[in-house]
Description:
The chain is mainly alpha-helical. The protein has one domain (about 5-70). It contains four helices and no strands. The radius of gyration is 14 Å and the shape is globular. The N and C termini lie far apart (about 35 Å). The model has no long low-confidence stretch (mean pLDDT about 80).
Amino acid sequence: MPWFLRDAAKKWKGFKSYLKKKYLDAKLTEQEIRKIYGERLNDDDWKKLKEYWASEECEVSTTKYMNSTMVL
């Protein structure tokens, strides 16, 4: 894979992570989140992110990551 595609993938992953940390557990409505991010995140991407965050796949992945980063 070319370096620029790897770099773009890392940046997209980082952006999704930022959104999840900031808004997944917050008490903001979808309209408030859309107002903040406006055109930076289109409706299809937002829908896919929400579906993924609610999936068992995400839960397993998050748990695995959290366990691997714990300091003993």
